[in-house]
Design a protein that fits this description.
The active site is at 27 (proton donor), 29 (proton donor). This protein is an alpha/beta fold and 303 residues long. It is 36% helix and 20% strand. It binds 4-phospho-D-erythronate and magnesium ion. The site of magnesium ion has 8 residues, from loops.
Length: 303
């Protein structure tokens, strides 16, 4: 595997690298921002790429927000972007459920472990759901809950899918209801399998951590619809129609972003060192996932 090219400070190298691609798929957390902290020169860099006629697509695994929510965040942070350019894991999961899985009614409702981003995208695809942000689930489990969950009186008979995403309000009650639906044959899906979440310049439990308890209980892993899933790549390509050989994936995480680009046989991948992965992760002799090139921060592309 060719060693990745280090581009920071290399004006000619950056020009040559950018000239290879017409389309850039951008990760968000750890590349554009860390939570509500915008990294330096991100708006200018996005502007620079647009001025060179490059097409941009924002492909995030963060399922807590919908495409509309991301448009608001882009506007708040002064990043020039359109809602149509966003393709999140919550949208990917909703499209998969509505247009590919297509379980027969009435047993096609989704029990959500996640935040409003998932609910909004399910709504947009006309998929019914329960759980999620419903305040009825934001409480401790009570003795009678065990009985009502076990005898099914607390369950919705139309639930046929359990969808696990990043859930900041996860608790034992929600996990117990999800586990019960899975024991009764529900399909087990996840928006994404990131083990950690880059926030406030540190790391927090990721979406996979949120679903891990239920996965352990049922003894199987969910099917993930986020990066590096090629079901997501096919959906992104289907929506944005691009030549993979002229497309580059930009990300901060090796086992999601960069693997997504490599498995998708894209023309190249660019690692940014402001998020989860460190350069030691891909410069190591036995590194499994190696990007085409890397930079200290997205703003380094300004040279
Ligand atoms: O736990 C998560 O869901 C991820 O850490 C987070 O969503 C990553 O988002 P991305 O870097 O793909 O924008
Ligand atoms: Mg990221």
């Amino acid at each position: 595997m060719a060693p990745p090219k280090y581009l920071t400070g290399d004006k000619a190298g950056i020009e040559e690298f950018l000239s290879r691609f017409d389309v850039f798929l951008f990760d968000c957390d750890g590349v554009l921002w860390s939570g509500d902290h915008l990294f330096p020169h991100v708006p200018e860099t996005i502007e620079m790429l647009r001025s060179k006629g490059k097409r941009l697509v924002f492909v995030t695994n963060n399922s807590t927000k919908s495409r509309a929510d991301y448009k608001k965040k882009f506007d708040q942070m002064g990043i020039p972007a359109e809602v149509e350019e966003v393709f999140g894991s919550s949208y990917s999961a909703a499209v998969y459920i509505a247009r590919i899985l297509k379980l027969p009614a009435p047993k096609n409702k989704v029990f959500v472990l996640g935040e409003s981003g998932v609910e909004q995208e399910l709504d947009a695809e006309g998929v019914r759901y329960c759980g999620g942000t419903d305040p009825a689930f934001r409480r401790d489990i009570e003795p009678e809950d065990f009985i009502n969950i076990a005898n099914g009186s607390a369950l919705d008979p139309e639930v046929g899918i359990v969808l696990a995403g990043l859930d900041f309000h996860l608790n034992y009650l929600k996990m117990s209801v999800a586990f019960q639906y899975l024991q009764r044959g529900a399909v087990f899906l996840a928006t994404n399998i990131d083990s950690s979440l880059p926030m406030a310049h540190s790391l927090f439990p990721g979406a996979a951590s949120a679903g891990a308890g239920v996965a352990k209980a049922i003894g199987k892993e969910p099917l993930s619809l986020g990066k590096p899933s090629q079901a997501m790549m096919d959906a992104v390509e289907g929506k944005f129609q691009f030549d993979r050989s002229r497309t580059c994936m930009v990300g901060d995480r090796m086992n999601t972003d960069i693997q997504f680009g490599i498995d998708g046989k894209l023309g190249g991948t660019l690692a940014v060192l402001t998020g989860v992965s460190k350069k030691e992760d891909f410069l190591a002799e036995d590194a499994q996932t190696v990007p085409t090139a890397y930079i200290d921060s997205l703003g380094s592309l300004l040279g």
